[in-house]
Amino acid sequence: MDFPFISTILLTPILAILLLFFIPPTSKKAIKLVAAIAMLISFLLTIYVYINYDSSAGGMQFVEKIPWISDLGVSYAVGIDGISLPMLFLTDIIGLASVFSSWNINKRPKEFFILLLLLIAGVTGTFIALDLFIFLLFYELVVIPIYIMVIVWGSTKRVSKEYAGMKLTIYLLIGSAFMLVGIVALYLQAFPPGMRTFDIATLSSAHLYGTLSIQFQIIVFFLMLLGFGTLISMFPFHTWSPDGYAGAPTAVSMIHAGVLKKIGGYGLIRLGLLILPAGAKFWAPLIIILGLANVIYAAYVAIVQKDLKYVVGYSSVSHMGYVLLGFAALNTISLSGAVANMVAHGIMSALFFAMIGYVYEKTHMRSVDQLHGLAHQMPKIATGFMLAGMSSVGLPGLIGFIPEYTIFVGLFAQYPILAIIAVSGIVFTAIYILRVLQKVLFGPRDSSFDRYDDAKGAELVPLFLLGTILILFGLFPQLLMAPINSGISPLGPFLERLSAAPSLLFTLGGI
Amino acid sequence: MEHFALTNTWLIPLLPAIAFVLIGLFFKRWAAISAFIAVLASAVSFILSTFAAFAVLNSGISVDAPFIQRVTWAEIAGLHFEMGALIDPLSVMMLFVVSLVSLLVQIYSIGYMQGNKSFGRFFAYLSLFSASMLGLNIAINFVQMYIFWELVGLCSYLLIGFYYQRIAAREAAKKAFITTRIGDFGLLIGILLLQTVFGTVDFLELKQILPLYIASYGTSTLTVIGILLFIGPIGKSGQFPLHVWLPDAMEGPAPVSALIHAATMVVAGVYLVARAYFLFASVPALLELIAWVGAFTAFFGASIALSQREIKRILAYSTISQLGYMMLALGVGSLTASLFHLFTHAFFKSLLFLCAGAVMHAMSEEADIFKMGGLRKKIPLVFAAMTVGVLAISGIPPFAGFFSKDEILSAALSVSTPMYLLATLTAFMTAFYMSRLLFVVFFGEETKAKLHNISYFMQVPLVILAILSFGSGLWGYICDFGYWIRFGAPLEEHMNLSIAILSTLLPLLAFALTWNIYVRKRWSADYIANKLGILYTVSFHKYYIDEFYALLCRIFIDGIGKIMYFIDIYIIDGIVNAVSGLVLFLSILLGKLQTGQTQRYAAAFFCGVVILLLCGILYFNTISGIVAGGGAL
Q1: Least buried of A8, A265, B119, B565, by fewest C-beta within 10 Å?
Q2: Do B196 and A423 touch (CB under 8 A)?
Q3: Angle subtended at Cα A68 by Cα A63 and Cα A71, rounded to the nearest 5 degrees
Q4: What CA–CA distance (Å, rounded) separates B320 from A183?
Q5: What is the pTM assigned to this prediction?
Q6: pLDDT digits over A257-306, tens only?
Q7: What are phi and psi of A56, to 5 degrees?
Q8: Chain A environment of B565 (Cβ under 8 Å)
Q9: What's the pLDDT score for residue A43?
Q10: How far is it, in rounded angstroms, from Cα B202 to Cα B43?
Q11: Closest CA to B306 of B405, B440, B172, B502
Q12: What is the ipTM of this complex?
């Protein structure tokens, strides 16, 4: 058997957690170093896998499978394909960056990094799992560290950190409860006793055998939509997201907005669309409408926000609208755009939150009304803000443009009028991003900020890592699009067949 | 060398891009090295552009048979993105103009920006701009053009806000970005429609598909696409009603105004229409729209310029007006006249801006022309250069503007008399505000201010541009610009003597008026302004359009935003919190049952047993009833 790359990527943070148990809480440097080294190893292995993934062959690669509970049809199976590979990459780069952005954590650093690594491992697990059971296991694992981290290391502004943490946790748990019901139903319905399995690939073929009636698919997909839709902050289940990010410590905001949210989009494609195609098709018009609401409504709300974290929080809700639109247009172009946009938004929002974290750490201010002219004192942080902001605006040459454009092309073919409304989001985005950045970064020098330094040393790692990817994937989009295409383009015939399936009462045909 | 230049045109934008990276990453602290790298890159780009132009001339490449290189940039199933170089007379002319003006402006900036602590950053931005603009010029498809279109927008944003410590600069930068973004919104939808309808955005492929498409489907879709695409140029080229950002953009340093907001970036809109002329020209209604937008903007811009006081703002409104001329020319079907004017305008307008920069530099950044005066003896070289610029823009023969403007006027006359009259009136106004500027700044009472020195770095570009402003029109006329550009069949207009005479006499009349008002003071300017009453007020306040937009913004952006936020917090979150409150209430209620008293638990237990028994009896009765009744069981 080949070297188990994927398992190593998953297990390195977990091993580091074990190691951390033996390090005394007082040796803060050692704790941070262990966390950083573990994430570095995972990140380098991910890059190795990314480079060695054969995009022309496509399909699942680096697969490892060990039977676990054979009576239930559960096995430990991990691997990656063109859809999960970019997500894995996203997880590890943001994981690494979040460790460095937490470099100045001095309150209970041991517990903090243990929980952070647990969180990263949990997210990694959901993306690499080929078994639904394993997927659920990791998915539920993720919620616990987040709750603790928000209420212990979080900050209280408009809402208290306890409220934010509780809201976030309950939302996600209720969502996942619906999903769990759906998944159990699916497990029982898909195959007769004795043949039952949690293997995602096998389940994806169940609809071909006719065991999953269209009605069944419609109901179960709806349950999944409640779960994954909440996770991707679909309107009107989005309000946990800005409050949650505002309350959370920097690293949690980065991972949550950057990666965890994307489990929603990933789940909708991997579990929703592939296992329950008729359900996805049926609900697509609703998702389009809600996605559109995400794009425009959240952008409008972002415009009037004063707290930097709320601006980026609502901005991420708005950007997730594009992902939902790309998903629901149900063609290969739009789906590729949706996956790419998850990566793009992950990188840019993580960079945003890292920069906001630094500013807050130094000045204890986050309000647009209090901050001004920071480019004088913190040119490097200002650069990070500009890079993230311009990506968010969809500037060509940075990571945001090609994914957005691809979604628009895919959406236009299906719903031209709605696509035009969606495109208008680029103007609103420019308005809220520029208003905030202008105010916070530029303007006369305020000498009361002179005592705060620019980012330096380890603090620069997130800026360097994420900034490099923003530019690299912007200038050479094929680096990102090639694996995604290998994952999505084989779905072409499948989606073609699906186009004849019934959809929600109002079809929105041609709008 | 010609062959090398032709086959390696991608180097032309790449060199400044490399300069940007080098300066930005390594050398921005060292002013001299930064400037050297930037100027060197621009110079080589200019040389390559010139050779490429010769190569095009000598190898028979025409608009209909361009030289194209392409590579795949990104590709997914059903959609691929290409980048490349489309070399034809149109694009090499643009390459030549852009690289030349870039080079001269960079040389000028060495003097102008001397001592600025962000000197290196300035040259990095300028290099990035050159790279983006040159990349735009050689675009082979709409997406590539859009990409560089956005990048020049970014550079414009960065350079307008270059003095970021100034609130005005930062607000102007934001305004420029957002206003042009509204235009880009239209452009992007147009491009998406092209992609959806035709499956391609490649200029050449579209050009081939279009006639067939029109033959079978008519022009209605095309009209929609054309209007949407044209919104982009309205934003970028400062056409009414999206012109508002351009005057504010003057917050940037003068070389930026000269390069980006006069000679190059703002003509990108004109260039886009010219590049996609096969599309616009196939729908007459579109051309008419473009012509009227252009004609109105020309008049509109000039009418505001008449009353402005800040030297660069006058020039900015003048730019808006001149861009209107170019659009008008496109609209009335004369690509040649439009590009000829683009060509000459690039020289005389950048000359005017650089002169304005020199004046402001000498006057310690004073911008109000009425606080200057009598400068002709103190800075004679700038005076001479500015005079050339004013004569050129006013269309006095044999200066450059005369020939290009004349072609536009005669093209307009051949299509519509009202447009011609509007354009001629604009020509008169142009001469009026330009001579007003010249006379107020350089004649009259001498200013007491002590003037700063103007270095050779600033003087040399002025001289070169003055020569070009003098000669480029005549050269174009003699060498038959239209033929040289070879837009397929020769399209160039011939000189119409009556138009030429009228368009020479009117500016001279304007000069006489301004001479009497501002130099001889025969008539009081204030008195005239008072007499004009509302007309003057409206012009001075720029038709109150900025105020109107601010109001719209307050209602439709902030107002709706506040309502949405209210909904978010009080309705959506209100429901969420109400549900959680309900759960909490129920849990408290149920919690009350847990008293810890055994007697109560026993009582509850007893009640439970009774209820269960009752249920059991009821159930059995029902069943036995059904059985007894010989029911279905």
Answers
A1: A8
A2: no
A3: 125
A4: 62
A5: 0.91
A6: 999 999 999 999 999 999 999 889 889 889 999 999 999 999 999 998 88
A7: -75, -30
A8: 300-301, 304-305
A9: 95
A10: 30
A11: B440
A12: 0.92
Report pLDDT digits (tens) over A154-210. 888 888 888 888 888 888 888 889 999 999 999 998 888 888 888 888 888 888 888
Within an 8 Å CB–CB cutoff, is residue A492 touching chain B? yes
| Distance between CA atoms of residues B513 and B525, nearest Å | 11
Interface test with B, best of A235, A301, A372, A428 (most B CBs within 10 A): A301
What mean pLDDT is reported for chain A?
89
Q: Which residues of A touch B161 (CB under 8 A)?
A: 438, 442
Domain spans of chain B, in order of start: 294-540, 541-594, 605-633
What are the angstrom distances between the C-alpha of A180 and each of A135, A260, A475?
Answer: 11, 18, 41
CB contact under 8 A, B161 and A477: no
User: What pLDDT score was predicted for residue B369?
Assistant: 83
CA distance A96 to A103: 11
Axis-axis angle for helices A460-475, A84-101 (nearest 10)? 150
Secondary structure of residue B577 in the 3-state scheme: helix
Contact A438 B171 (CB under 8 A): yes
Pair of tokens at residue B402: 């005369």
Residue A296, Cβ neighbours under 10 Å: how many?
Answer: 20
Instruction: Compare all CA atoms of chain B with the CA of A492 and give the residue at the minimum distance.
Output: B77
Q: Average model confidence (pLDDT) for chain B?
A: 87
Residue with tokens 């970005």: B177
Contact B351, B465 (CB under 8 A): yes
Q: How far apart are CA B542 and CA A93, in angstroms?
A: 51
Encode pLDDT of A338-391 as tens digits: 999 999 999 999 999 999 999 998 888 888 888 888 888 898 999 999 999 999
The pLDDT of residue B633 is 43
Q: How far is CA B586 from CA A162, B331, B582, B591, in A?
A: 21, 72, 6, 8
- The pLDDT of residue B480 is 67
List beta partners, residue B72: B82
Q: How confident is the model at residue A126 (pLDDT cuts 50, 70, 90)?
A: very high
- In three-state secondary structure terms, B439 is helix
- What is the DSSP secondary structure assignment for residue A490, as one 8-state letter? G
Residue A506: pLDDT band with limits 50, 70, 90? low
- Contact between B138 and B91 (Cβ < 8 Å): yes
> Which chain B residues contact residue A485 at CB under 8 A?
75-77
pLDDT of the residue at B498? 81
- When computed from its CA atoms, the radius of gyration of chain A, rounded to whole angstroms, is 22
Inter-residue contact B390 to B438 (CB < 8 Å): yes
Q: What is the pLDDT of residue B325?
A: 92
Q: What span, in angstroms and rounded, lies between the C-alpha atoms of B136 and B269?
A: 11
A508 confidence band (pLDDT: 50, 70, 90): low
Q: What are phi and psi of A507, to 5 degrees?
A: -95, -15
Q: What percent of chain A is modeled with pLDDT above 90?
A: 51
Chain A, window 222-251: residues with a beta carbon less than 8 angstroms from a chain B beta carbon: 236, 239
Q: How far is A65 from chain B (nearest CA, A)?
A: 30
Contact B246, B312 (CB under 8 A): no
State how far the alpha carbon of B441 is from the alpha carbons of A398, B258, B379, B446, in Å.
Answer: 45, 19, 11, 9
The residue with tokens 């950057």 is A258
CB neighbour class for A192 (10 Å; exposed up to 12, middle 13-18, buried from 19): exposed
Dist. CA B292–CA B283, nearest whole Å: 15
HEC states along A270-318? Answer: HHHHHHCHHHHHHHHHHHHHHHHHHHHHHHHHHHCCCEHHHHHHHHHHH
C-alpha span between B261 and A19 (Å, rounded): 60
Q: With 50 as the cut, is the pLDDT of residue B632 above it?
A: no
> Residue A289 and residue A304: Cα distance in Å, rounded?
23
